[in-house]
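Posted in: Structural Biology > Protein-Ligand Complexes

Title: Requesting predicted complex, 2'-deoxycytidine-5'-monophosphate in pocket

I'd be grateful if someone could produce the 3D structure tokens for the following input. Sequence and ligand are given below.
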Amino acid sequence: MKRINIAIDGHSSCGKGTLAKQLAAALGYKFIDSGAMYRAVTLFVQRAGLNPEDEIAVTSVLPEIRIYFEVNAETGHSDVWLNGENVEKEIRTLKVAESVSQIAEISEVRRFLVAFQQKMGIDKGVVMDGRDIGTIVFPNAELKIFMTASPEVRARRRFDELSASGIKTTYEEVLGNIRNRDIIDSVRSDSPLTYTNEYRLIDNSSMSRDEQFEMALKWVVSVLNR
Ligand code: DC
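-- Reply #1 --
Done. Output follows.
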């Protein structure tokens, strides 16, 4: 059976992870959340008391960082681990979200994580979501999907998710963070989020999860039958 790599890029909080997990489960592929890796580096930097904008200091601690994924027996999802500790929950806080785009702007951080991401895709059968997966990490991915939705819709969904997991915040704070990250992610000089005509586009502002999954699955089937 032919195996492919699927790249899913797009804006923050537009459900890339949800779609990626659904596709990986349906196909028996590995799901990799590349954003979780940038978040784990950010957590390390914050715990070390470093300024996330201090590129030299951040670069100097990269050799101390070991990030990997392990399947969580309770949820069945793969959690991100940082130097022997499961940090899946802690990397989702607003504190990490506030600095992660600055960390993701640092070229040495990107090189460090991209090398690791590319290794994970060597044998194919990977669904990876992020910002540069179709452009930099897997430029030859057989299927590239670009996802977006309006900032307000994304902020509402993210706010509901954070509230449900007991994290205290406001809708306005989440919306502000999303708008900020959209700008930083799209204008940074190294590997900005860029839509190209190689992507198939999903705007899910008014689409259900099932509808987008069906649409993506049809694309997968057409690529597999090519
Ligand atoms: O997908 P996310 O919101 O968890 O990503 C967190 C941050 O990491 C986001 O602001 C952009 C950055 N990121 C990136 O630059 N490249 C990726 N492949 C994934 C995430």
